[in-house]
Design goal:
5-stranded antiparallel sheet
Length: 228
């Protein structure tokens, strides 16, 4: 029989304060898809992020592909007209397609609320990529690969420590480059002019802009209080 003492969760070490969140309350005020529920992304952190989808007339979410060197665990907390049922739990492939998961995006009765959770690595590299492929032949049209290795766990105890989820920032970047011109959306393999990616529906730009603004505001407050 195993010793129960070896399976006890260690007490908080001070690098991250204990927090809790209600997914339904959090997604009511979320400004982006894949909104982190907590502001800690350092080494060893458990990072749950919420996503909320709703169908409607003329609604389209498009599709992109995400590569992540750490596993993502998905839990559907509420769904209707979706490819996933309420309560469904699964682990995504390290490279996976991302869309609304709604069977009919123009159905206003269709919706999905999920939490996607990953655990940040400790003392190891972590890599991600965001890819947009041609709607016709699936060739890569736009892609960004980036180092997602988390900062030290105590990074977030620093008042000046950045608190943005890099996945959303780089997703906004690749979608922005894809949407910059028609030439950027033409597939070099089959010549198809791909439609613009519906960036505003995913909210990544808003998240990145508000993240920068909050970081600036935090520094301004520290300076006003007599800090460096």
């Amino acid at each position: 029989m195993s010793n129960p003492q070896t399976h006890r969760i260690a007490p908080p070490d001070g690098s991250r304060e204990p927090l809790r969140a209600n997914i339904f309350d959090a997604m009511t005020v979320a400004n982006a898809q894949l909104t982190p529920l907590f502001p800690c992304f350092g080494a060893g952190a458990i990072v749950p992020a919420g996503a909320i989808m709703r169908g409607g007339e003329g609604v389209t979410y498009g599709q992109f592909f995400h590569t992540n060197s750490v596993d993502e665990v998905i839990i559907a907390f509420g769904a209707h007209g979706s490819l996933t049922d309420t309560g469904f739990v699964f682990v995504g492939a390290n490279t996976h397609g991302v869309n609304s998961f709604l069977k009919n995006e123009e159905d206003p009765a269709s919706f999905l609320v999920v939490v996607i959770t990953q655990r940040q690595r400790v003392d190891e590299e972590q890599n991600e990529a965001v890819t947009i492929r041609c709607v016709k032949c699936k060739e890569i049209v736009a892609q960004i690969s980036y180092d997602a290795t988390p900062p030290p766990a105590n990074h977030y105890a620093d008042p000046d420590g950045e608190r943005v989820f890099s996945t959303l920032v780089y997703s906004a970047e690749v979608a922005g480059k894809f949407n910059a011109s028609e030439a950027a959306r033409i597939c070099k393999k089959c010549g198809t002019l791909n439609p613009p990616f519906p960036l505003e529906r995913w909210g990544w730009n808003a998240y990145a802009t508000q993240g920068r603004t909050v970081a600036d505001a935090r520094r301004a407050l520290v300076q006003a209080a007599g800090g460096k």
